Amino acid sequence: MKIDLTETTSSKINQALVSARRALGTPAIGMVLTLVIVTDEENAYDALKSAGDASREHPSRIIAVIKRVSRSPRSRRDARLDAEVRVGSDAGTGETVVLRLHGELVNHAQSVVLPLLLPDAPVVVWWPEDAPADPAKDPLGALAQRRITDAYSAEDPARELAARADSYTPGDTDLAWARITPWRSMLAAALDQQHVELVSATVEGESENPSCELLAMWLADRLGVPVERTVSAGPGLTAVRMETKNGVIVLDRPDGSLATLSMQGQPDRAVALKRRDTAELLAEELRRLDPDNTYEATVKFGVAQLGGPAEPKPAEPAAATTPAAAKKTAAKKAASK
């Protein structure tokens, strides 16, 4: 069921939600959280589809906030709220409210969203693109226990990761971090099978891919060895090689779907490591609402070691040094002096 409301208010939207539930014969509310999506008209469809798919695992009230900024001075002064209410099969397993804010109301989105939040339920805010520099201090982000950004959608992912580190507040996370969860699990399992001393590691993937950078930072932070970052044609993250005193451990995924795990003294094994869509990544992030201490330690470690995002070097596109490797190089230079 869909209900269109023009020049409406938050109170009328709540009344429409109640009426729609009664009309469908489902007056009870079985939703576990409120997911607020801050997006624009161009990306709203994809974001709502991903959120709807994720709601099959996490039944939720989805509130999409679309800010319609007009170039006309008069239109900017005329505040107006249009809404679309979706309940039933049109809204996944929960409810969906699409808010279109016009005029001065664009600067007061939190006052519109606040009355629509589910009572006594967690609030998650997701920016599919154009995330604020400090999500926790954003008026909408301040309402949430969990704030999700995506460095992959930024024009400069390296600087975006630096901004995430500078403004980190418990509850912040990024979809670029969720993309490497299967890689981290597989690499940790491989190291558990062989108790060997590591010498170095290499992370191979697309240039300016924030997930590749985060995986390199995580390895350097956790293993305490030099980690080299090399560039490949993709798709995404393609390989990780860990040099040990007993041989090389390689996790190679050239096609974005099936990976091969190679270890000294064991036969090669094929493992499923497909690239996941946004709905799966979002569902993973909604499984936990507590602070992600590992993400915090990783992103802060990387930025602290590099002293900020590194500028790309067109003359040397094949490799860029990760935090631990940069630290080792600096130590060598100091020793030579």
Automatic annotation (TrEMBL):
Positions of the Glucose-6-phosphate dehydrogenase assembly protein OpcA N-terminal domain: 52-165
Biased composition (Low complexity): 316-328
Region feature Disordered, mapped onto this chain: 305-337
InterPro entries associated with the record: G6PDH_assembly_OpcA, OpcA_G6PD_C, OpcA_G6PD_N
Transmembrane segments: none
Domain Glucose-6-phosphate dehydrogenase assembly protein OpcA C-terminal: 170-298
Domain of life, per lineage: Bacteria
Signal peptide from the UniProt entry: none
Protein name as annotated: Glucose-6-phosphate dehydrogenase assembly protein OpcA
Natural source organism: Streptomyces atratus
Lineage: Bacteria, Bacillati, Actinomycetota, Actinomycetes, Kitasatosporales
